Amino acid sequence: MKVVAAVKRVVDYNVKVRVKSDQSGVDIGNVKMSMNPFDEIAVEAATRLKEAGTATEVIAVSCGLSSSQETLRTALAIGADRGILVETDAELQPLAVAKLLKAVIDKEQPQLVILGKQAIDDDAGQTGQLLAALLDWPQATFASNIEIDGSIATVTREVDGGLEVISMQLPAIVTTDLRLNEPRYVTLPNIMKAKKKPLETITSSDLGVDPSPRLKTLKVVEPPSRKAGVIVPDVATLVEKLKTEAKVI
Q: Which long-range contacts (CB under 8 A, 24 or more apart) does 229-234 make?
């Protein structure tokens, strides 16, 4: 069974992002970048399937600038067998990424595609679902457990009311939640091995896909600072403030 794990290069989750002075976007100059945490979980899940003998090959795929090769090398160090970079300088949005991934999947013919449930930079949470629609494959989102038995995938997913267990026929799409696993620490020997693993670079035009954005970002601003809290002497004063100032009752 061949497994594809999609990864995205984002601003590291420990970095406090800054808005550009012209409010055109987030300033990523001289900012630490890393693999999207949910995608790291996806690569770990795919690697564990291979280690268990369920999967025969794990392919890490990323879309974006040439610097995304670094993110793919991290995926290779975790355990992916080879990487594919769809290089483009376009501002990628979920639909464009889904179309690019579909073109790669049509070529590679995997039985399972694992993605993070969302990226921490735009928090869109749409790529997995759009990809499933384009491929007309079954999907399981927000997965906290994955079990493969032959051509059937059984996925435990987190919903508002608790846990839901579903089974689906492969090929299928799975998006990962935080509780699926804890990604392994990437060791130096594995980083060195990753440098020798194959990494193919193709372009969006090679795949016949136009990744041009369909939406235009008009302005990006920081959220307003929260006002300081007020301590009230009694319940009556609290109720009065909720009526007159907050206007919630």
A: none
